[in-house]
Amino acid sequence: MKIHHIGYLVKKIEKAAAAFEAMGYVREGGMTHDEYRKVDILFLEKDGYRIELVSPYAPDSVVAGLIKTYKNAPYHICYETEDFAAELAALENGGCVRMDEPAPAPAIGGRRVTFLMHAAMGMLELLEPCAPDCGQEA
Ligand code: NI
Fold first, then answer.
1. What is the pLDDT of residue 29?
2. Which of 24, 47, 88, 90 is least enclosed by beta carbons within 10 angstroms?
3. How far, in Å, from the CA of 77 to the mean position of ligand 1?
4. Among 52, 51, 28, 26, CA closest to 40
């Protein structure tokens, strides 16, 4: 598995994006309004590291509870798999508890993701491989 991005919770996504840009981060694509998870998402990159700003836009967003605890902070690492089903099974056998059903991520070209929780590592996200014609790079 390869690290695809670090997920970063933020309360105000435009303010956060501007602050990261001032630090030298560059936007990758535009803002995505993810209606399944009720979050706005924006990717930025610096020095080969990709971060994902995630900001809830509704009280029943999947991260509405998390942001009350974490405020503005990194909260997951996303791993891109070569074999989604096999890596998912290995993680579940290795002590991870799956938090949701695999579902398309509109911010990542509709590729499926799922979130897992590990008692010692915290939260991680698993991303299915890019289809040959998806036009995205790892
Ligand atoms: Ni993510």
1. 94
2. 47
3. 7
4. 52
Q: Above 80 in pLDDT, residue 39?
A: yes
**Mean pLDDT of the 37-63 span:** 96
Instruction: Give residue 78 CA to ligand 1 midpoint distance, Å.
Output: 5
- Kindly give the pairing relationship between strand 49-56 and strand 2-9: parallel
Distance 22 CA to ligand 1 centre (A): 22
Q: Which residues contact 37 (CB under 8 A, 6 or more apart)?
A: 61, 62, 63
Whole-number Å distance, alpha carbon 125 to ligand 1 midpoint, is 6
Characterise 106 by phi-psi region: left (phi > 0), alpha (psi -120 to 50), beta (else).
alpha
CA nearest to 53, candidates 65, 62, 44, 66: 44
The average pLDDT across 30-59 equals 96
Ligand 1 centroid to Cα of residue 61, in Å, is 14
Instruction: Provide Rg for the chain, Cα atoms.
Output: 15
Element (H, E) at 96: strand 96-98
- Provide the residue type at 39 as one letter: V
